[in-house]
Design brief:
Radius of gyration: 19 Å
Largest sheet: 3 strands, antiparallel
Distance between the termini: 48 Å
Helix content: 40-55%
Number of domains: 2
CATH topology of the largest domain: PH-domain like
CATH class of the largest domain: Mainly Beta
CATH architecture of the largest domain: Roll
Shape: elongated
Strand content: 15-25%
Number of strands: 5
Strand order of the largest sheet: 1-2-3
Order of helices and strands: HHHEEEEEH
Number of helices: 4
CATH superfamily of the largest domain: Pleckstrin-homology domain (PH domain)/Phosphotyrosine-binding domain (PTB)
């Protein structure tokens, strides 16, 4: 379904440009832009949990956060968000989104345990 929406957006952009060649190039550019923005949906992402923190390798870039820097972990059965900010909000982009791929029962306790043990050792 997401691919259909991406292609439809590209088609609409190409129709919006009056020049035929410019329309085709603009449509292809918009499809490419949406593909890169949705790269985690289309391409594999790998996660690594260790004693220091969590690291994620996206198809375009990497990001890591130490356990002691994490402040909150809102989640549900399919995924969660590891945030370095006390309060969430629209501009909370410093964290890491984690998708559980059906293994939430295993992953959620590991993350909570790591966050709790680091906070317990700080006190």
């Amino acid at each position: 379904m997401a691919s259909v929406v991406v292609l439809a957006c590209g088609w609409l952009v190409s129709l919006a440009v009056p020049n035929v060649l410019g329309g085709v190039l603009a449509g292809a550019g918009s499809i490419l832009f949406l593909f890169f923005m949705l790269n985690r949906f289309y391409l594999p992402t790998t996660y690594r949990l260790d004693e220091n923190g969590i690291a994620v390798r996206y198809p375009i870039g990497t990001r890591s956060i130490r356990w002691q820097d994490l402040q909150r972990f809102p989640h549900d059965a399919s995924g969660g968000y590891l945030s370095t900010r006390q309060r969430g909000g629209m501009f909370d982009s410093r964290g890491i989104s984690v998708l559980f791929a059906g293994r939430g029962e295993e992953i959620i306790p590991r993350i909570k345990s790591a966050m709790t043990s680091i906070k317990g050792s700080k006190a």
